[in-house]
Amino acid sequence: MIKFEHVGLRYGIGPEVLSDISFTLAPGSFHFLCGPSGAGKTSLMSLLYLGRRPTRGMVEAFGHNTNLLDRVALSEERRKIGVVFQDFRLLPHMSAFDNVALPLRINDVPEKKIKDHVEELLDWVGLGDSMHRLPPTLSGGQQQRIAVARAVITNPRLLLADEPTGNLDDEIGMKLMGLFEQLNKMGTTIVIATHSLQILERLPHPRLILESGHLKVFDPATSSSVEAAHVV
Amino acid sequence: MSFKVFAISSRGGAGYDVPLHLKLGTEFLVILTGLMTFLSLLAAIANLSLGHMTHAWTSGLENTLTIEIPAPNVSEESVSKLLDGLRKISGVEEAKLLSQKDMQDLLSPWLGDAGSIWDDLPVPKLVTVSFSERTPQLIKDISATTRKIIPDARVDAHEDWLADLMKLAHGLKLTALAVFILIMMVTAVVIAGAVRSRMAIHHRELELLHIMGASDRYITGQFVRYILMQSLKGSSLGAVAGLAVAGFFLFLARRNPGTVPELTLQGAEWLVFAAVPCLLIVIGLVSARITSLRVLGEMP
User: Fold this and answer.
1) HSE toward the beta carbon, residue A51, CA cutoff 13 A
2) What pLDDT shows up at residue B13?
3) Which residues of B touch A137 (CB under 8 A)?
4) Rounded mean pLDDT of chain A?
């Protein structure tokens, strides 16, 4: 589904923040992305959601070499990816309903369908009563759930979440992880960047570990650690 | 409840994902397009009016010429012969000798009521020739006939000062056109700047839409719609102001002729009050679209 081959990324003429990254995410897999601050997690996430092009190497998404895709084709590939940002990035001038509806409107879905889908999803995440409220009037946890709803409304093939439990208490954080597990069981490939030891201990999914721009994979199920370049 | 109303109008009403409906220089764009519409209307009206004025000035003279005959040397018989000869030329509609009364009327502003001295003054005789269409051959034929019958007569085809007048008029028309084009160009540049500035302000929102897979066309559509709404407001105000000024000038011109430049728009030319705002809006939209696509092109 997603394949990185010898990918490097640098900003401007600065040093490489990611060096020689190679790995493959199989369809329906669930990975955690870990590493200390400044290791390049956010940069790797931006490559995963196709927000940047690598300065070297090849990123393959859903069977397409993204280096060869034009802008229109690349935007179509992006629509297959849902992203939950650490700071939510909700649009404050839009209601919860409109924030969640945004990806559907970008996909040109008819308004009638949008209404049905969004209301159903907001009910599911427990925000059915708050759908017309603006994000600044909601709590951190409620905003987080809107961000998640927005990321999953299009039923994406790949879901990326950057520290999704960072602003939540443990209980709500684990509930959210339960939601991700559910989505994964329905076939969505998931990558979650997290620092939370509690989550990492409770959920034994493979970990992509970034250190100084280099990637290793640790699988708690086998307690084995390998260089990411060899992981397929 | 108040939040609900605001939320629905924020997206459902204005239809912007990027908060373009929030007032961040919106008034500036409306005022600017209004002013530009008003100024370009004035330039367009000036251009059209100048065209009519020069036509009016020259149409009476273009198809006429004057033959001056020094009085002492010429007999009545020669003048009659000249008139007959001129009337026979193909293209000449009329050849007429100005009567003494006509001459007195012409010269009275300089000479006053000269009374009996008219008989002593060596006033030349004037023959006016009118024709259907001025051609070099016709002028040549008239000159040749005149020289043949009265060699001392001088043919004044008004060509020298008519050419100067036309040059001046064309110069003024070109200036008005240049001003019009300049206003359109300034509008395009200013709107491009406004779009670029709004895109910089809302960079985070644009980036979010981009990550969600919004195409450049989708995002650009929002900015183009925003510019359309602002330009519509501004251009309407500018057109109304232009009409008001034109109406005021027409009123003054009718009430006190000669005190203000005369507006001479005819028939379909009044459509200028619709065409110029529309052109300005189209230029604004094209400028907004090109700018937006360029800025988005800088994103990966």
Assistant:
1) 20
2) 44
3) 3
4) 88
- Contacting A residues, span 39-68, partner chain B, CB-CB under 8 Å: 49-53
Nearest to A106 among B6, B207, B214 (CB): B214
Distance from CA of B214 to the nearest CA of A (A): 6
pLDDT in tens, A25-40: 999 999 999 988 888 8
Which residues on B lie below 8 Å from A106 (Cβ)?
Answer: 209, 212-214, 218
Å between A77 CA and nearest CA of chain B: 7
> Using CB atoms, which residue from A81, A83, A98 is nearest to B7?
A98
Tell me which residue in A50, A91, A105 faces B205 most closely, judged by beta carbons: A91
Return the pLDDT at B258. 65
Q: For residue B10, what pLDDT band results from cuts at 50, 70 and 90?
A: very low
Q: For chain B, what are the domain ranges?
A: 2-58+163-297, 71-152
Backbone phi and psi for residue B156, each to the nearest 5 degrees, phi listed first: -110, 100
Judged against a pLDDT cut of 80, whether residue B21 lies above it is answered with no
Q: What is the pTM of this model?
A: 0.76
Judge if ipTM > 0.85.
yes
Mean pLDDT, to the nearest integer, of B250-274?
Answer: 77
